[in-house]
Amino acid sequence: MPRKKITIPSKVESLSILNEKGQLDKTLEPDIPEELLLKLHRAMVLGRRFDERLLSLQRQGRIGTFAPITGQEASQLGAVAPLRDTDWMAPSFREMAAELWRGKAMESVILAYGGYNEGWPDEKEHNDLPVAIPVASQVLHALGIAWAMKYRQKDDVAMAFLGDGGTSEGDFHEGLNFAGVYQAPVIIICQNNQWAISVPRSKQTRSKTLAQKALAYDIPGIQVDGNDILAVYAASKEAIDRARAGEGATLIENVTYRMMMHTTADDPKRYRTDKEVNAWKKRDPIIRFQKYLIDKGILSDKKINTLEEDVKAEIQGAVDNAEAMMKKTIEPMDMFNHAYEELPPYTEQQRKEFEEELAEIGKEGNHA
Ligand SMILES: Cc1ncc(C[n+]2csc(CCOP(=O)(O)OP(=O)(O)O)c2C)c(N)n1
Ligand SMILES: [Mg+2]
To answer: Measuring from atom 11 of ligand 1, which residue has the nearest CA?
Structure first.
């Protein structure tokens, strides 16, 4: 029997449109209307400033632990911008800017991070799943929805978010395999932010790119400069259009950087250098995009200052509203109302017992 090479008909591309100085490769410039460009810019600034405000609220003990998104604004907003409202998004725990873009209120983010049920999305309002903490589970969630869309012959698509660390999980590989076999309309956005808590990208996998992991499942994989919003938008739009046209799944690796701590419970100074962080500061996605918009003649320093003031006031309004909501009596029975359409018998039993207990406490005039 001969021994011969099998040709694998796939390749991995890498895409960058704005360089690190914000200069444009005109041949690759996506056709994005001015209004959308400015809306994206505003969303990036809002995401950054809100992240900073959340961090200060957390440090003052006004909310609990959360995962900051600073540095990853382009990587998530460029991905969701080409989605339609009826499409689906399955976020992990680091997609705050994308969730706001899709319609989540800042008040909900504050309430959720403050530990209030009321902060989680009302699925009737938009087609997004709540934040899912189990790493890489988002791939399976989005895939299930995508498969359902296909089964129902709808042309809606689903987008999953996960991190570089997530690509080492079984869920990620099972999801890609299933998506390939069933040609599911799912777009998997891997935000490669170089760290999985304290595990660096170099220890995550020997693969040269994360995008190439798609090839084993015969799915297109592309590596994108995740701090270049034009490149992220272009790659995502292409993948979304393909999925909608019935051509199946895509894996997109957005190369970016987690500028802050993993969560507010982490101290990154224990495992990474200032030199590394400073090198990435030079690739700030907001500054690069602003340079592009200024060169295009649709943004100026004056407009940026006005926008900053505007965003600050909007954030302050949301903080005030959320804190007023926190002061209102919260309904403890609510915890039974979100997980199941019909409660399983043992949970129903717990619900009854809890109800009785609350009634007892009420009788004693001891309602804490
Ligand atoms: C299945 C599972 N294992 C472990 C954890 C604990 N954990 C939370 S985030 C995280 C690292 C995730 O890194 P990455 O996928 O790169 O995402 P990033 O936090 O960088 O956005 C781990 C191990 C978890 N949430 N779920
Ligand atoms: Mg990571």
So the answer is: 196
